[in-house]
Amino acid sequence: MLGEVEIEDLGERELDELIARPFQVSRPPHHTAPFVFASPHSGRVYPQSFVRTSGLDPVSLRFSEDAFVDELFACAPTLGAPLIAARFPRAFVDANRAANEIDPSMFDALPALPMDARTVRMAAGLGVIPRVVRDGLEIYRGTLPAQEAAFRLDKFYRPYHAALARLIEETKARFGMVVIIDCHSMPSSSRAPDIVIGDQYGETAATPLVAHVIDAARKLGFTVGYNAPYAGGHTTSAYGHPTSGTHALQIEINRGLYLDERRIEKRASFEALAKRIGALIEQLVAADASLLATTNTNQRERA
């Protein structure tokens, strides 16, 4: 077991069960809003075969996890929009990275896959198969078998993105447009706002939509940042094409609002924050379709 922390314990079923169900899709009773919510980093099913390769203690292994973000956004289906959440942990495979962000130095031989080890994220050890967790802690005791890269991509990463793509296609077919909200959390600091909205510097969502999200969050009492320090990751850049009616935004929630970050435990404030996030979702899904106009996606700083 992974210590006295709140995770799913699969016992002997571990890896096979996770392969069979690498993500969870929660569908609304009635799909009434052109939104899809996604949580790629809140997975907390840690295969024991993975845990045994790590030199980290159980809690430290979870430091990069967007712990309980899927629960913060869990009301989305009740408000008419589907929610997809990865069940596999970010430290195992990161669904918010490009599939080719693979560091060959992590493996005992060169994986037979397209690789790009030149990105900033790769240099930091935060590729699609991460080398470190938050604070730069090394995950592994040694190198991994070369075939492990293809295994994790084929069994976890690609099924998640295939399911997300299907939800996007279904939603766009129903409404003629779609907004992907990629849901994350960020480490707390004295200077961090409550929420950061990211749209890849105006590239992945219509300006009126972004303004509406920021205004709605502020009216609910959140302090809001825009594209700094988080402008969005692979999900927003891969799926956000506003000129074709597909918009993508990243929302980062300050972990200090709801989480004991050293113990990876919910604070007493968790339920209250979940209600505020629910109120924000309610504002988003009620947005007028005119907010998805794409006359100008180059946005000025709003934070």
Could you give a quick summary of the protein structure above?
This protein is of the alpha/beta class and 303 residues long. It has helices at residues 14-20, 48-51, 69-72, 120-123, 147-175, 207-219, 234-239, 270-285; strands spanning 23-26, 35-39, 83-86, 132-133, 137-138, 178-186, 195-198, 224-226, 246-254, 259-260, 265-266. It has a single domain (11-96, 145-289), classed as Aminopeptidase (3-Layer(aba) Sandwich).
Describe this structure in words.
The chain has one domain: Zn-dependent exopeptidases (Aminopeptidase, 3-Layer(aba) Sandwich). About 25% of the residues lie in helices and about 15% in strands. The strands form 3 sheets. It has a 7-stranded mixed β-sheet, sandwiched between helices. It has a two-stranded antiparallel sheet with strand order 4-5. The longest helix has 29 residues. It is globular. The relative contact order is 0.16.
